[in-house]
């Protein structure tokens, strides 16, 4: 049974869930998603970890104090830092997916003493690529499509830009739980905020490779075995792993493999977190 809690941080109140026992494993969702995106994988980890999943500020149940505004990676990193401080003094395991992986990289670079091992699964940090200017122009095109045509136009351009348009997503091996269904229902309400205030500042973040290489935290970049180099997140993950001087860890599934292949994904994640 999950403990549902909140934490007041500057400018927002974060919603988070705590399950299981053992060392803390903080799970950071990406894009417009929230903690429920991990509902399938979490039950396979709670016998070994105290799993903490949260809604990033502005998404779902993590409400802002005032009007919506752009949220940069440093703000998200500060939120994760404050949440880990609330949970205890020991360095934690951290898993981040997509934009959540960018947040995890920011956290590990700026608050390295709080992170034991970070697994950054397919972070869309396109500024690390040789065609960084093209990547930034693409995020701007998504934003302008949203501004002129609304959420539907923005998401259509987003899927084209990131390489997911026309891609058939893997379906979950087991029926989604009620918690996950509720989460999918909330995502639609987060799309305005994602397109208007999160996509550009988070995707435009350039990880501090020097700090990540020199810090005490172990950094592992993850890629999906069903992802392709048509996808910006996959390409930037491979480039980041190369910059860090460590090969990427291969996980089952595509960009959302923890949804479609939850149990297998959890086994791989546990192995990666505890590898030496």
Instruction: Give the overall average pLDDT.
Output: 94
Backbone structural class: alpha/beta
The radius of gyration is: 17 Å
Number of DSSP helical runs: 9
Strand fraction equals: 15-25%
Helix content: 40-55%
CATH C-level label: Alpha Beta
CATH topology title: Rossmann fold
Low-confidence runs: none
CATH superfamily: Alpha/Beta hydrolase fold, catalytic domain
Q: What is the annotated CATH architecture? A: 3-Layer(aba) Sandwich
- The span between the termini is 32 Å
Main beta-sheet strand count, sense and barrel state: 9 strands, mixed
Order of helices and strands: EEEEEHEHEHHHHEHEHH
Domain tally: 1
Please tell me what the overall shape is: globular
Count of strand segments? 9
Structure write-up:
With 276 residues, the protein is an alpha/beta fold. The chain has a single domain, classed as 3-Layer(aba) Sandwich (Rossmann fold), CATH 3.40.50. It is 42% helix and 19% strand. The protein has 9 helices and 9 strands. Helix 7 links the parallel strand 8 and strand 9. Helix 1 (73-87) crosses helix 2 (99-110) and helix 3 (132-162) runs antiparallel to helix 5. The two termini are 32 Å apart. This is Pimeloyl-ACP methyl ester carboxylesterase. InterPro entries: AB_hydrolase_1 (IPR000073), AB_hydrolase_fold (IPR029058), AB_hydrolase_sf (IPR050266). Pfam families: Abhydrolase_1.
């Amino acid at each position: 049974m999950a403990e549902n809690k909140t934490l007041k941080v500057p400018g927002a109140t974060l919603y988070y869930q705590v399950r299981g026992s053992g060392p803390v494993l903080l799970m950071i969702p990406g894009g417009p998603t929230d903690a429920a995106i991990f509902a399938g994988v979490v039950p396979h980890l709670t016998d070994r970890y105290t799993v903490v999943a949260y809604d990033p500020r502005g998404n779902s149940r993590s409400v802002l104090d005032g009007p919506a505004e752009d949220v940069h990676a440093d703000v998200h990193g500060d939120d994760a830092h404050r949440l880990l401080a609330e949970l205890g003094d020991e360095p934690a395991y951290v898993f981040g997916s997509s934009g959540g992986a960018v947040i995890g990289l920011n956290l590990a670079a700026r608050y390295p003493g709080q992170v034991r091992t970070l697994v950054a699964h397919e972070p869309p940090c396109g500024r690390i690529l040789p065609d960084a200017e093209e990547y930034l122009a693409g995020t701007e095109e998504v934003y302008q499509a949203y501004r002129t045509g609304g959420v539907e136009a923005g998401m259509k351009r987003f899927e084209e830009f990131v390489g997911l348009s026309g891609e058939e997503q893997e379906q979950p091996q087991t029926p989604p739980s009620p918690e996950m269904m509720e989460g999918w229902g909330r995502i639609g309400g987060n799309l305005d905020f994602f397109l208007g205030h999160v996509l550009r500042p988070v995707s435009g973040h350039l990880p501090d490779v020097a700090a990540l290489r020199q810090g005490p935290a172990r950094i592992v970049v993850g890629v999906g075995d069903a992802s392709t180099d048509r996808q910006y997140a996959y390409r930037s993950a491979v480039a980041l792993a190369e910059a860090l001087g460590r090969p990427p860890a291969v996980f089952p599934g595509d960009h959302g493999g923890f949804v479609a292949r939850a149990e297998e994904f959890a086994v791989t994640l546990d192995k990666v977190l505890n590898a030496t």
